[in-house]
Amino acid sequence: MDAPMTFRAVRADDLPALKAVIETTTLFPSEMLDGMLAAYIAGTSGDDLWLTTAEPLPLAVAYCVREPLTAGTCNLLLIAVHASQRRRGLGRALLDHVEATLAARGDRLLLVDTSSDAAFDGTREFYRRAGYEEEARIRDYYQDGDAKVTFRKRLR
C-alpha cells in the first residue's frame, strides 16, 4: 500500500461497491451480500463486525461473528479485496484491523475456515504468514476430496 489505509464500519450505501469487490472474486455470487448484510444494516445483528476501507470507496470487506456458546471466540466468515488492489498489503492491513478491533472489545480467539483445494493454496499461506495456525481439517467437507481447513489465532 502506498499510504496507511483506514477502515470503518460498513454502511447501507456501501452495498453496490461491496458487490463490485465480491464480483472480482470467486467466493460467492455478489447478490448474496443483500441477505448477509440485512440484519446488520437493520441493526439487529448483535455483535457482528462488518468493516471496509474508508473513502473514497470500499475496496475491501471483512465480516466476522462471535461464536455462540463461547467466551470471546470469533469466526472470520469473509475477507475480500477488489482484484485491482490485491498484492498491495490491503488484505493484511484489513485482517490486522479486524484482529485489533476484536481484541479491543475483549475477544480472545479468531477462527477462519478455508478449503484444502489447490486453488486455495495462496489463501492458506496468507493466514500462515499472518500468524494463524492450522487447527483442524474436516475431510470431504465441501465435497469429496476437499477438506475444510480451520485456522486459529490468539488475539490476547
CATH level 1 class label: Alpha Beta
The CATH level-2 architecture is identified as 3-Layer(aba) Sandwich
CATH fold title? Aminopeptidase
Number of helices: 4
Report the structural category.
alpha+beta
Task: Give an overview of the whole structure.
With 156 residues, the chain is α+β, with helices and mostly antiparallel strands. The protein has a single domain, classed as Gcn5-related N-acetyltransferase (GNAT) (Aminopeptidase). It has helices at 15-23, 32-42, 90-104, 121-129, and strands spanning 7-9, 49-53, 60-66, 73-81, 109-115, 133-143, 146-154. The chain has a seven-stranded mixed beta sheet with strand order 1-2-3-4-5-7-6, sandwiched between helices. A hairpin with a 2-residue loop joins strand 6 and strand 7. The chain is globular and about 40 Å long. The relative contact order is 0.14.
Offer a concise description of the structure:
It is built from 4 helices and 7 strands, in the order βααβββαβαββ. It has 156 residues and is an alpha+beta fold. The chain has one domain (7-154): Aminopeptidase (3-Layer(aba) Sandwich).
